[in-house]
Automatic annotation (TrEMBL):
Transmembrane segments: none
Lineage: Archaea, Methanobacteriati, Methanobacteriota, Stenosarchaea group, Halobacteria
Name by which UniProt lists this protein: HEAT repeat domain-containing protein
Domain of life: Archaea
Organism: Natronorubrum halalkaliphilum
Gene3D superfamilies per the UniProt record, alphabetical: Leucine-rich Repeat Variant
One MF term in the entry's GO annotations: oxidoreductase activity
Length: 421
């Protein structure tokens, strides 16, 4: 089973086995990342949360790969401050349990000068979680740490603390450091969100350097503002494909970050800008890729919603296929968004594709139920005839009920129509 499938199925035991036993450091690092992303699903009913943390602590200390140790520390961060402190306590011998936060912050600040880079990384991450301003200077000084893994986590910590005082130091390194460090610095500036921080991102979004533009466009997706929508929409016409694709991914992320009181306005603005985009492939392909590969629920929901509203004739067939495959998504809201987007999208060939799906007894029943809902919206004479026969022969009460509902909407003989349930 692939790591992707292990992630989708939350197979903790097999993921830990890969982390501990794989001879490939890339696989071990990816296993650690996935274990971190599954934090919300780690409970004693399915798999011992403590055992997951223990495995990550061990990898953080003992794995021979720098990248694996770094990934394991980031995964511990997702399991919370106590998980991080367990690692810090084991590697430093310093007991952190039961002491006041401000005292704990001072202990961690001393850890920024430790010989072991893993301890410096964990100390910076822990300080970002605590968020005490009294250690801000110690963190800013560590932006010059010789280990780029430490600099990344220092930048991340400064973004969490959101202190405007760190903006000048972060801005300087945005132009000078290694690529992955610069990404964290850009994220930190977006999280701090002051005018000076945002001005820096807006300025570099128009830089001559393609790499710098991509970094800025990536970070702007965290803002959730109308201003960011306009800048990202402009980046959809960038000369570089990587910048265009990143801009589209950032727009999807921005939908997730938008505050509730501005969500509707931002959605309308994004649709307006995407419809006007000159490079249609830069708009459609990332959305289809998200539906095909992403395991992030919010991303998939937003991609499904957007695709039905901005798909052009050139990409209509691809969009239909991607949305049809999403009808059986494990997340009910994502599958509903896919169904309603198909109803909005309609277009040549959709009715035939949906009828084929409905008649296929080997396909997931949930997909077929949603397909019947869409047929009730977009079907014609062909659907009426075929669904009349379908409801007579199907053995599934749920499919029969949904088939009658679709027939009712199409003017055939059926039950009273309802929602997607």
């Amino acid at each position: 089973m692939t790591l992707f499938n292990l992630e989708r199925n939350a197979e903790f035991e097999q993921l830990i086995s890969h982390l501990e036993r794989s001879s490939n450091p890339d696989i071990r690092a990816r296993a650690a990342e996935i274990l971190g992303s599954l934090e919300s699903k780690a409970d004693d009913n399915r798999y011992s949360r403590a055992e997951v943390i223990d495995a990550l602590v061990e990898a953080s200390q003992d794995d021979e790969s720098d990248d694996v140790r770094a990934a394991a520390i980031d995964a511990l961060d997702q399991y919370g401050q106590e998980a991080l402190e367990q690692f810090i306590g084991e590697i430093s011998g310093q007991e952190l349990e039961g002491i006041a936060e401000w005292k704990k912050a001072k202990v961690l600040a001393r850890g920024l000068s430790a010989d072991e880079p893993e301890l410096r990384m964990a100390a910076a991450t822990g300080l970002g979680r605590i968020g005490e301003d009294n250690v801000l200077n110690a963190l800013v000084e560590r932006l010059t740490d010789p280990d780029p893994r430490v600099r990344k986590r220092v930048a991340r910590a400064l973004g969490r603390i959101e202190s405007p005082e760190s903006v000048p130091a972060l801005s300087q390194l945005l132009h000078e450091d290694k690529y992955d460090v610069r990404i964290e610095i850009a994220y930190a500036l977006a999280d701090i969100g002051t005018q000076n921080a945002l001005k820096e991102l807006v300025d570099v979004a128009d830089a001559d350097d393609e790499t710098v533009r991509r970094i800025a466009v990536d970070a702007l997706g965290r803002l959730g503002s109308i201003e960011a929508v306009e800048i990202l929409a402009g980046a959809l016409n960038d000369d570089a494909e990587t910048v265009r694709r990143t801009a589209m991914f950032s727009l999807v992320q921005l939908l997730s970050e938008a505050p509730a009181n501005a969500s509707h306005q931002i959605r309308e603005k994004i649709v307006e800008e995407l419809e006007a985009a000159e490079e249609s492939a830069a708009v459609h392909q990332p959305l289809i890729e998200i539906l095909d590969r992403s395991t992030e629920t919010a991303q998939r929901r937003n991609a499904a919603w957007l695709l039905g509203r901005i798909a052009t004739e050139d990409h209509e067939a691809e969009a239909q296929e991607a949305l049809i495959e999403t009808l059986g998504d494990d997340d009910e809201m994502t599958s509903k968004f896919a169904a309603t987007s198909l109803a909005v999208l309609d277009g040549d060939g959709l009715e035939g594709r949906l009828l084929e799906l409905v008649r296929d007894d080997y396909r997931d029943e949930e997909m077929r139920v949603k397909a019947l809902f869409v047929l009730g919206k977009v079907g014609g004479d062909t659907s009426r005839k075929r669904l009349s026969k379908f409801v007579e022969r199907t053995d599934s009460d749920r499919l029969r009920k949904r088939g009658f509902s679709a027939l009712s909407k199409l003017g055939g003989v059926g039950a009273v129509s309802g929602d997607l349930a």
